[in-house]
Amino acid sequence: MTLSLTLPVFLVAGCVSEPGTGASPGVGGDGIKVGVLHSLSGTMAISEVTVKDAELLAIEEINASGGVLGKKLVPVTEDGASDWPTFAEKAQKLISQDKVATVFGGWTSASRKAMLPVFERNKALLWYPVQYEGLESSPYIFYTGATTNQQIVPALDYLAAQGKKKLFLVGSDYVFPRTANKIIKAYAAAKGIEVLGEEYTPLGHTEYGTLVNKLVDAKPDAVFNTLNGDSTVAFFKQLRSAGITAAGTPVVSVSVAEEEVKGIGPDNVAGHLVAWNYYQTTQTPANDTFVKAFKAKYGADKVTSDPMEAGYNAVKLWAAAVTKAGSTEVEAVKKAAGGISIDAPEGTTTIDGDNQHVSKTARIGVVEPDGQIKEVWSSGQPIEPDPYLKGYDWASGLAP
Amino acid sequence: MEALANQLPIGLSIAAVLLLIALGLTFTFGQMGVINMAHGEFIMAGAYTAYLMQGWAGGQSFLLALPVAFAVAGLLGLLLEWALIRRFYGRPLDTLLLTWGVSLILQQLARDVFGAPNVQVTAPGWLTGGFDLGGVRMPYNRLFILGLAVVCVVGVWWYLAKSPQGRRMRAVVQDRELAAYSGIATGRVDRFTFLLGSGLAGVAGVALTLIGPVGPGLGTFYIVDAFLVVVAGGLGQLRGAVIAAVALGMLNSFLEFWSDASLAKVLVFVVIIAFLQVRPQGMFVLRGRSLV
Fold it and tell me: ipTM of the assembly?
């Protein structure tokens, strides 16, 4: 008799005393919960697991120096499983069940687009650490990866300066490559560059014989590659076996970093170009520390890449914003975030309070035979983020 | 037109890959009516074997990796058959679910052991590059895959036609009951068929490291195509698998050339569905009295 009464009483009591309230989300006991939401399985896991690792490293470092507002950060890690609806579902779970103060997560634009309504509806914050196609600035997302004018546009400028007048576009079939290619075509139209072909393959596609054949037939000066995930491995292996050399037809990729180069095999991609804001070889004191700390925690054979560094920065930037705001409350953090600047491994990076993106230095790199990426061009100063490309005449037709 | 001419070897190349991945499945599916959703993970096991051998024996280990992968994947298949599948004979939908679960477990195991990111398998030097045949490009790695597919088909054909164990296998496929009454140990034959089918998947895995990613998700890229070939070609039929693979390879190659990769995939599915409406049993079917 008593047992059947006690049990429901305990259950109800358990429901009532949940950590954190709307006013200071995530805070409960002597810890602040934060969500880490990436694909730990599926085709995107090859890229996202290391971003999660970098974010956990940042959390560990913050805790080692006292935490935030005197409390330790408690990461709650969830798996988006390379499935966009799962990202939305897990985001909702982190917000309503775990009541996290903020979420660091996502990789593909598809995952971000799936999560966006969840964060806006719940008025919770997402920190998105990957380069993307721009044309977005949700009030509840902070974007620490590059937007188009910090990555794709400098890459196009670089190619134009090298005299490459004929481009072939290759991409995975989803929102990021499609939007990126719209931007590239607008740029090309304005600058007299010819786009010889635009080919899309489904995510996870591994048969590139026909695409490479079309590419070779078109005879471009350069290839702009927005393939994502496992496809990049198949593409570069098959491109090389078709006799394409980096010297003859350089491929510029925006989703191939040190981690992907390892999987592709440096032989298959050496000499080709990539456009990012950070490389493991970037020379800053903050990067020395970051690379050493990452290798110490995860293994000496690990590499660091731009999205990993952006994820790491996201955690540090959020922590700085919370410290300045004096609370984890979302509106307070948003207000405090504008102007916050840190010495990131990529150099100084500052949050733009209006569009909630960060300033980033653009760097073009060439893949070396040892798998590292060497910088061949840099914008010198950080570029201010312009997600809607308002500052570019040729982009005037693009805003949604 | 040079570009169009190039699509012919590309079509054959796709056919060779399809044949390699589907050959083993033709027997496990056809022989025993076992829908093995973990077949893709046996391919993955073969690919990781090539990776490990590269780490132990260096760049010259590629050819050696082929028989080793056969053994590794074959033993894995044997283990699966002995531990789980033999309890579910005659229950194809249950084996489907069961092997689907096993495939998820194997994928996660690979993720835990080797890490989530893709691992690097370097093609041996003698397989890098290619030559031009009258303007048509012939990469060495694709030619190797084609050659390997031919060798595997000939090997399997010889085994089935000429060897006593092969004849026993054919007997069990044609009429299981009669074979049992004739004194054939059908259980042992089944086990060996599964070993053969899985071993062939392992060999396919090694070959695929030449052209594709090596990661925990490897199996998922190829499993659907493997089933398509088997279903279109007719269960348990060697010549059906060969013809279906060539047909699908060529179809895919030319459709993609004229449209794009996504549309080509859709159209190939449409063609197969249409074909199965007309001939649901696939291209070649046994004239046996089996009820399957």
Answer: 0.90
Contact A223, A11 (CB under 8 A): no
Helix (H, G, I), strand (E, B) or coil at B82: helix
Which tokens is B254 given?
């030319």
Tens of pLDDT, residue by residue over A277-318, are 999 999 999 999 999 999 999 999 899 999 999 999 999 999
- Residues of A within 8 A of B10 (CB-CB) are 209-210, 213
- How far apart are the CA of A260 and the nearest CA of chain B, in angstroms? 8
Using CA coordinates, name the residue in chain A closest to B1. Answer: A217
Residue A149, min C-alpha distance to chain B (Å) = 29
Residues 6+ apart with CB under 8 A from A70: none
Fill in the amino acid letter for A290: F
pLDDT in tens, chain A (400 residues): 444 555 554 444 444 444 444 567 877 777 999 999 999 888 788 789 999 999 999 999 999 999 999 999 999 999 999 899 999 999 999 999 999 999 999 998 889 999 999 999 999 999 999 999 898 999 999 999 999 999 999 999 999 999 999 999 999 998 899 999 999 999 999 999 999 999 999 988 999 999 999 999 999 999 999 998 889 999 999 999 988 999 999 999 999 999 899 999 999 999 999 999 999 999 999 999 999 999 999 999 899 999 999 999 999 999 999 999 999 999 999 999 999 999 999 999 999 999 999 999 999 999 999 999 999 999 999 999 999 999 988 888 776 5
Identify the three-state secondary structure at position A3: helix
Of A206, A241, A267, the CB nearest to B122: A267
Q: Mean pLDDT, chain B, as a whole number?
A: 89
**Nearest C-alpha of chain B: how many angstroms from A162?**
28
Q: Which residue of A has its CA nearest to B142?
A: A241
- Tokens 């955690």 correspond to what residue? A315
A20: left (phi over 0), alpha (psi -120 to 50) or beta: left
User: Are the beta carbons of B116 and A41 separated by less than 8 Å?
Assistant: yes
* Test the A interface: residue of B248, B256, B258, B262 with most A CBs within 10 Å: B256
The residues of A whose Cβ lies within 8 A of any Cβ of B are 40-43, 45-47, 49-50, 173, 199-202, 204-207, 209-211, 213-214, 216-217, 230-231, 233-234, 237-238, 240-243, 259-260, 262-265, 267
Provide DSSP, A123-162.
T--EEE-S----S---TTEEE-S--GGGTHHHHHHHHHHT
**And the tokens for B112?**
């835990």
pTM of structure: 0.88
> Which site among A174, A201, A219, A241 would you substitute to test the B interface, given the most B Cβ atoms closer than 10 Å to its Cβ?
A241
Burial per residue of A106-138, b for 16 or more beta-carbon CB atoms within 10 angstroms, e otherwise: bbbbbbbbbbbebbeebebbbbbbbbbbbbbbb
What percent of chain B has pLDDT above 90? 57
CB A170 within 8 A of CB A227: yes
The residue of chain B with its CA nearest to that of A198 is B260
Here the tokens at position A382 are 């950080």
CB atoms under 10 Å from CB of B160, counted, come to 17
- Digit-coded pLDDT (tens) for A234-289: 999 999 998 899 999 999 999 999 989 999 999 999 999 999 999 999 999 999 99
Among residues B230, B261, B264, which one has the least CA distance to residue B245? B230
Which chain B residue is nearest to residue A82, measuring alpha carbons?
A: B217
| B170 closest CA partner among B196, B144, B207 | B196
Separation of alpha carbons B39 and B96, rounded Å: 11
